Amino acid sequence: MSQPPPYSPYHQAPPPHPQPGFGPPPPFQPYPAPVGHQQSTGSPVGAVLLGFLASVAVSAVYTVAVVTTYEGQSAAVAHTLYLLHAAVNGAAVGVLVGLVGRRSSGARIGGAVVAPLGAFFGYTNAIPFIMFDQGAGGAADVLKDDPFIPAKAWWGGESGTWWISLLGLVAAAAAAWGLAHAVGRTRR
């Protein structure tokens, strides 16, 4: 009586040996990224936060500049200074958002929202300081009675310059989004 091979308890022939390259898969190992290809997601929240801080700084500089020079300014100079401030604010926010947020659309949108707010608050924050500087002892009472006086002054009131106010917001948003897109697109 011949005995079956010890490998097969059910009297079956042993399986053929697998060829190299076949068989059970090896345990999962992540593939390393190819050289030169890295994830380029950036940090959208950090980008918007850094853009916000830059916007606050640029707005504070603009507020100080307006308060120190408002007495000798004509309306044309004041409007030009506001538009320049809006563009610089948008540019500062856009560059920082592009550098930190890279290709993140959310960071670009956040920067395009933060920059116009900085342009608006840079202008409106100067109004109370100008009121106090002009010696209006009751400036605090006036602002308490109508807290929207700075926003009304920004809008242009009866002078018909509301379109300059809106143009400043558009300039800030366009500069922020455009520069964030241009800088973020080239970053890896």
Descriptive notes:
- With 188 residues, the protein is mainly alpha-helical.
- The chain has one domain (44-134, 142-186).
- The protein contains 6 helices and no strands.
- It has helices at residues 44-69, 75-101, 105-133, 139-145, 149-155, 162-186.
- The longest helix has 29 residues, at 105-133.
- The N and C termini lie far apart (74 Å).
Summarize the structure.
By secondary structure, the chain is an all-alpha fold.
How many distinct helices? 6
* Overall residue-averaged pLDDT value: 84
Cα-based radius of gyration, to the nearest Å: 32 Å
Structural class: mainly alpha
- Counted up, domains total 1
Give the amount of beta strand, in percent. Answer: under 5%
Element order, helices and strands?
A: HHHHHH
Give the N-terminus to C-terminus distance in angstroms. 74 Å
Shape: rod-shaped
Q: How many distinct beta strands?
A: 0
Task: Bin the helical content.
Answer: 55-70%
**Low-pLDDT stretches:** none
Biggest beta sheet summary: none
Q: What is the topological layout?
A:
Layout: H1 44-69, H2 75-101, H3 105-133, H4 139-145, H5 149-155, H6 162-186
Helix pairs in contact: 1-2, 1-3, 2-3, 2-6, 3-5, 3-6
